[in-house]
Specification:
Elements (H helix, E strand, L loop, with lengths): L1 E2 L2 H21 L6 E7 L3 H17 L2 E7 L5 H13 L5 E4 L9 H7 L11 H8 L8 H12 L8 E5 L6 H9 L8 E5 L6 H5 L4 E4 L16 E5 L3 E4 L7 E4 L4 H4 L3 E4 L7 H17 L6
Parallel strand pairs: 1-11, 2-3, 2-4, 5-6, 5-7, 7-8, 8-11
Antiparallel strand pairs: 9-10
This protein binds guanine.
Amino acid sequence: MQIIDGKIVAATIKEEIAAKIAEIVAAGGRRPNLVGVIVGHDGGSESYMMMKTRACEQCGIRSSLVRMDPDVSQEELLAKIEELNHDDDVDGFIVQLPLPKHIDEQAVIEAIDYRKDVDGFHPVNVGRMAIGLPCFRPATPSGILMLLERYHIETRGKHCVVLGRSNIVGKPIANMLIQKAYPGNCTVTVCHSATPNIKELTRQADILIAALGHPCFVTEDMVKEGAVVIDVGTTRVPDATRERGWRLCGDVDYAAVSPHCSYITPVPGGVGPMTIVSLLHNTLQAATGAIYKK
Ligand code: GUN
């Protein structure tokens, strides 16, 4: 069994991105610029945004934060998005989700210029991804592909079973892995809350991707010997032995499942660190016009 070390891969790719940006700047080019919009004071969103800003600094990407009150009107938020859409100094921006209940999340996503949508959530990017065209790809599934690639894991002809059908992980990873590409060329099954006999399906998986947000859902009896297991879960569970009172728990019962795997991602330190790297990668692509010409 080999542990897929997301921290090491993320550090390597960050260095590669930093080197490319240094090259651009040395040749007289502009430093990429990413803006994050955060509405309200959600603890999770705040810490996530801080990590993104720190990672930008490490790579030489300019980044700034736009903070809006939790009771900001949808109109005001859309006006800010319009301003960022037209600001030539901004290469890409993200609006941190979830948003307060009075704001229509989909309306916000669709207001973002898809050429600056480094989250890859806009329907133009989602649609282009579905038909295999260049686009900004969402961070978490894109990070999973990077891990499969860096560990040279064979995907062609493999049966990949995805647990979960969210718009930010389940649906896009399923879509990416059926594409005629590497990583890809898989036969993909997507399981969700209405799927009967989930265990029968997961036991057939050569590659099992757990993204349902249910701690320790995947048990030993659900995994085929030699499977590649990718754990996307990051649920905070109470832990009195930790000073902060909680720890992160994945969707996979790691202790029981890992001895049966060929490869497995730990939580934390597996998929998590890759998510931010994908955002940095997308920001560099936005700045260089690699996907949509400037
Ligand atoms: N909330 C949880 N994950 C994400 C993400 O990747 N992007 C944004 N904008 N919000 C999130």
